[in-house]
Amino acid sequence: MFGQLNARIDMNQAPSKSVYIETxxxxxxxxxxxxxxxxxxxxxxxxxxxxxxxxxMILNTCAIRGGAEDKVFSYLGAxxxxxxxxxxxxxxxxxxxxxxxxxxxxxxAPGVDVVFGTHNLHRLPELIxxxxxxxxxxxxxxxxxxxxxxETPVVRLNSISAWVSIIYGCDYNCTYCIVPYVRxxxxxxxMDSVAQEVEELAASGFKEVTLLGQNVTAYGHxxxxxxxxxxxxxxxxxxxxxxxxxxxTGHPRDLNPEIIDAVAQVPNxxxxxxxxxxxxxxxxxxxxxxxxxxxxxxxxxxxIRNKIPDAAITTDLIVGFPGExxxxxxxxxxxxxxxxxxxxxxxxxxxxxxxxxxxxxMQVPADLKYERLRFLNSVVxxxxxxxxxxxxxxxxxxxxxxxxxRNPERLAGRTRTNKIVNFEGPEALIGQLAQVEIAxxxxxxxxxxxx
Length: 451
Ligand code: SAH
Ligand code: SF4
Ligand code: F3S
Hints:
It contains 14 helices and 19 strands. By secondary structure, it is of the alpha/beta class. It folds into 3 domains: about 15-140, Rossmann fold (3-Layer(aba) Sandwich); about 160-390, pyruvate-formate lyase- activating enzyme; about 395-450, CATH 2.40.50.140. Strands 2-1-3-4-5-6 form a 6-stranded parallel sheet, sandwiched between helices. The N and C termini lie far apart (about 55 Å). The chain binds S-adenosyl-L-homocysteine, iron/sulfur cluster and FE3-S4 cluster.
C-alpha cells in the first residue's frame, strides 16, 4: 500500500503545500494529529499555523459531549467561508465525530472534501490525493483497525515530551460513553514496537514520554504472551535518557498491584495516576456500568498512597447523570473532599448517540446539571489548592518545557506529579531538569525559585 503511495508522491513533486490542523478532544487525538502531519509531509504538505494560507485544513474531532460535536459544525461553517475566499483549498474532517457521521458529514457540513474515521488515519494521504484528482468528496470509514496496521510517520510538535499510543479502543461499555462506539475494541501495540519508538525518541533527545490509551491500565491483556503495563514500564525504565514515563488514562478496575509496584520501583516512571472515578455514589456507578464500587476505588487509592506517599491522584467526574438525586450528587462532592484529589476534570452529563443512558427517563434538567457542576467545581478548586499548598517550602524536580504563556519572563515546566511550576531562570534550562523551591501555590499551578 505504501509502495503505491510512494509512486504517487513521485508524480507529485510539486512545490510544498501547507496544512493547518485543528485538534479537539483527548491526548489521543493530539497524538493522532502529529501522525497525520507526518503522513502528509510524505506527500509534500508542511504544517502551518495560519489558517488563511493553508492549502489543506484538517479538523480532528471529538464526540465525547454534545458541545464538542457542535463545535465541529461551527468550525466547518467558518472554514467553508474561508475556502470560498481561496478556491482549491481542501477541507478534511476526521476521527471521532467523523467515524460516527460517515457520509452524513457531507450533508451536515457542505464543502468538506475528505471524511475519515478513527481506524484509517494511515490512509489519509491516499484520500487527500483522490479528492484532489477527482474533484469529488471522498468518504472512508473502517469498522475496525486493520490487523497489519502500518507504523506511521510523525511530526512531533514538542521536542521535549512525546506521546506514544500503546493501546487503542476500549472494551468497557459505560452507559454514557460514545468512545467504544467510535474507537472500537481494545488492541495493544507490541512491547517491541513501543520500546523501539521510545528508543528512537531517546536518541532524538526527548526527555519524557506519555503512554496513551483510553484504558492504558488494560495494556497487554490481548497480547501473546500476555503482559501488563508494569512490564512495559520496567522495560522503558532501562532507557536512561528518558527521564520520565507517564501514562493516561487508566480504568480503576484494571490497575493491578504490579502496576503500582512498577511505578514505585522504576526510576523514570512518574508518581502520577489519572484514575477516573466518574461518581462518588454506588448506585450511580452501577447504573454507569463502571464495574466497581466507591469502596474499591478507596482501596486502590490507599494502595497507591501506601506504596508511593507522594503520588498525585487525579480523576474525572460527571454530574447530572440521568436519575442522579441531590444526595447522590453530594456523595460525589464528599468523595472529592475525602480522597483529596490533586485535580479533577468535571463535566455535566451529555446524552450521546449509541449510548443506553441517552434514552433513559429522568434526565436531569440542564440548569440543575450546571448548578451542580458549578458547586462541584468550587469544591474541586478548594481541594486542589489545599493539596498544592502542601508543597510550599519543598524543592521539586521540574522538567522545563518552555516559557510561561501568561508571563514570558518566567519558565514553565512540570513536576513528576504533573504539577505546573513557573519560575525565573535562563533560557538554557529549557529541556532540562531543574530543582525549584516552591514559594506559592494556587489550585492550578505552583510558583518558585531556582535552587
Ligand atoms: N477511558 C477513560 C475516559 C475517557 S472519556 C475512563 O474510562 O475513565 C474522558 C471523560 O469524559 C470521561 O472520564 C468522562 O468523565 C467524560 N465523559 C464521557 N462521556 C461523557 C458524557 N456522555 N457526558 C459527560 N462527560 C462524559
Ligand atoms: Fe468510555 Fe468507560 Fe471506555 Fe472510559 S472505560 S472510554 S468512560 S466506555
Ligand atoms: Fe473525544 Fe474521541 Fe478522545 S470522543 S475524548 S477525541 S477518543
